[in-house]
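Weekly structure sync, notes
Attendees: PL (lead), two postdocs, one rotation student
Agenda item 3: pending single-chain targets
PL asked that the sequence for the first pending target be pasted directly into the notes so everyone works from the same version. It is reproduced below exactly as submitted, 202 residues in total.
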Amino acid sequence: MGRSSIVVIGAAKGGTTAVAGITRILGVYYGTHQALGEWDNHHEDVEFFNLLYRGNNKVFDLIRKRNNDSKVWGYKHPTLYKKSHYRDIMLSNLINPKFIFVTRDLEAIGLRRGPDKTIAERIADMTRLSMEQTNLLKWINENSIDYIFVSYEKLLINTFDTIGIISDFIETPFNSVICEKANRYIKAEAGYIDFQDFLNNE
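Predicted structure, written out during the meeting:
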């Protein structure tokens, strides 16, 4: 396994949390500020998150620190397409970046974002999401980056095959121990369990 940066992208409520959790189980380091209540369950590095959303250029210093401290590290950012300036500069600072683009049924995302919305509001939300993902696909194609698509639905239905694909892509071991952990984390009926509950049962 060589040096690399793993970036999990997709859409809010689109399955990125489940996939990021799998990459953590596979051994990807996700920062030092995870154990802060709900943030740990979302696998978002709070230090990274705060710098990026405040438009603070120190985020690039943090990327360099992560590069120096960890052979392989990851960051989950469902809506990276909304930060085009930082997204492009980040790409030039990451070492051997590997992007995991998580896809999910558009109607399911719409329901997760607002179950009480009207049909017209859901359609508008799905239309906007479709356009955002189209722009992200164009960016991926234009930059010739290393990426895979991971279907959230397939992760739930064909868990081990999908994890095997992720493992091959990010070049991490996938063995019986990982299978056992993944089996506890991914639940087809509910999606996935609370990550803190998962860690507490380690």
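Discussion points:
- Residues 4-194 form a domain with the Rossmann fold fold (CATH 3.40.50.300).
- The CA atoms of residues 104 and 152 lie 5 Å apart.
Action: rotation student to compare against the earlier draft before next sync.
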